[in-house]
Design goal:
SH3 type barrels; about 220 residues; coiled coil; 2 helices; transmembrane; two-stranded antiparallel sheet; SH3-like_bac-type
């Protein structure tokens, strides 16, 4: 008697659980999943005496078409049939969730490796760019020094050219002064020569004149004698 009561209680409990499962399915979307049982049957009608259409493994995704109190009509892999509600749940099974999580974790690890490699490449590229920047700065500094030296050299060249021109002008002036000095010297010599010749001629004329005067005086004296 106690065993019979226990069996009845178990049946009632299963019924309550089944009704709760149906209510949960009723509030779910149009997708359901087979629970973590190994395999269930997809039957052509609502009962175990109906023909088995196919077997469904746990985690199979089913398209919900219609619901009743204990059965749900679904479409799976192109076939339609009925499945007991107690074998359905609104989320994938633990194995499928674990597989999905494992796959996602593997994808995340791969993405992490790719990001790490990309980060390493970026760091290497950054170091190369820094080295290139340092080389460019050094080249720029050398170019500025060379430009400054070239500018100073151009200034010295311009100054040297100006000095050379000034020297040429001074040489020309010296040559002009030399020629002028020669002209003045030649003129002075000529003037002195003319002056000296004039003095000599004047002296000769004066001597001739004085001689004549003396002769005249002597001639008068002789006549008186």
């Amino acid at each position: 008697m106690q065993r019979l009561a226990g069996a009845v209680g178990a049946v009632l409990l299963a019924g309550v659980i089944g009704s709760v499962g149906v209510q949960n399915l009723a509030s779910a979307q149009t997708t359901a999943y087979v629970t973590d049982e190994l395999e269930i049957t997809l039957r052509s009608g609502q009962g175990n005496d109906y023909r088995i259409v196919r077997l469904l493994r746990s985690g199979s995704e089913l398209e919900v078409l219609e619901r009743s109190e204990t059965w749900t009509r679904v479409r799976a892999f192109g076939d339609e049939g009925w499945v007991r509600n107690v074998y359905l749940q609104s989320e994938p099974g633990a194995a499928e969730q674990l597989a999905a999580a494992t796959e996602e974790a593997a994808a995340l690890r791969q993405e992490n490796r790719e990001l790490s490699e990309a980060l390493d490449d970026a760091k290497t590229r950054l170091e190369e760019l820094r080295a290139t920047r340092a080389e460019l700065d050094e080249v720029n500094t050398r170019m500025r020094q060379r430009l400054q030296e070239a500018g100073e050299g151009l200034e010295l060249a311009d100054e040297n050219q100006a000095l050379r021109k000034e020297v040429v002008d001074l040489e020309r002036q010296v040559q002009d002064l030399g020629r002028e000095n020669e002209r003045i010297t030649d003129r002075g010599r000529r003037d002195w020569f003319i002056a000296g010749a004039g003095v000599i001629v004047a002296g000769m004329l004066l001597g001739i004149g004085l001689t004549r005067i003396r002769w005249r005086r002597r001639g008068g004296s002789w006549g008186d004698l």
